[in-house]
Structures are given as C-alpha cells and as structure tokens.
Amino acid sequence: MNDYGAMLDPASLRFTRELPASVETVWAYLTDSSKRGRWLATGDMELRDGGGVTLRFVHADLSSVPEPTPEPYKPYENGVTTQGLITRCEPPRLLSFTWGGSQGEPSEVVFELSPQGNGTLLTLTHRKLAGRDEMVDVAAGWHTHLGVLSARLAGREPGPFWSTHGKWEADYQARIPRP
C-alpha cells in the first residue's frame, strides 16, 4: 500500500492506512479527545450530525523528540484552535466534519474505517481544499499525523514531528502538480 496521499481532483486528497488496531480502537482515537490529542488535536466533538467539533493543535505534544518549531509555524507554537461541524457520524465506521482551519469556505474531512485482517483500514479523504498551496500543506500534515497515529497504535514512540513534517512537505511540493 502506498502511504502517499493521492490527489483525487484539484481540491481533494485521499490517504489510506492499514492500522494495527480494531475498528473500535481506531474510532476511539478519532473521537476521544485525550486519545486524539496523542496524534492530532484535543477538543470536544458532539458525535451527531450537526454537532460541533473543536480541535486544539499543540504539535510539540505529538513528538517524542523535542525540536524547534519551524519559522512558518512559529505563530502556532503554543497551539491553535479550529472549529467545525460534524456532517456525518456513523459509529464506529464513518466520521466526517468541516475543517475550520481552511481559507475561505471550510474544507471537509471524511474518515472511513473497515476491518482488515487483525487491524483496520483507514481511508481519509480531505475535500474542498482551496488550491495547491493548501493541498501541499494538508498533504504533509495528514501524512505526518497519520504516521504518529500508526506509531501510537503500534505502541511505538512517533519520533520528531517537525523534521518529519518538513520532509513530507518537500515531497508533496514535488509530487503535487502546479496548475
């Protein structure tokens, strides 16, 4: 399975990951603030269609290796909070919500979970991205965060966040075509 996000169209990306945990465990890592905070962001989620989503990102908390925050992300060094709304909630198989951190109209993230062997196949689709720059940023972010999730579910330390993110950002700059 290719770990890179696939560009579905000029405004959509899709990632797939085979995760070493049950659908129920992965669902908990998507929906429980303390578990989600170990790989993405803490914050409340009202698990119903139309429910609110708060995501509080503190990237330093995701790394098992301390490193300085890169200059472009310094304004968010002490955390950044975004808001969204749940657009579909079908526990424990499907969760989608608007992504409040996007420019202009909100984008939308869809997580789909299905059993696969002793683990779970996660399909993550991020739609309605505002352009190539946002797509590169989102692709590098999801690639890095999903790596942290995979490590946590496997009982491993995730390693450095920012240097890993920087590597993926350079990769996606080269992979995602310019319009």
Automatic annotation (TrEMBL):
SUPFAM superfamilies: Bet v1-like. This is Activator of Hsp90 ATPase homologue 1/2-like C-terminal domain-containing protein. Residues 21-153 form the Activator of Hsp90 ATPase homologue 1/2-like C-terminal domain. Belongs to the AHA1 family. Pfam families: AHSA1 (PF08327).
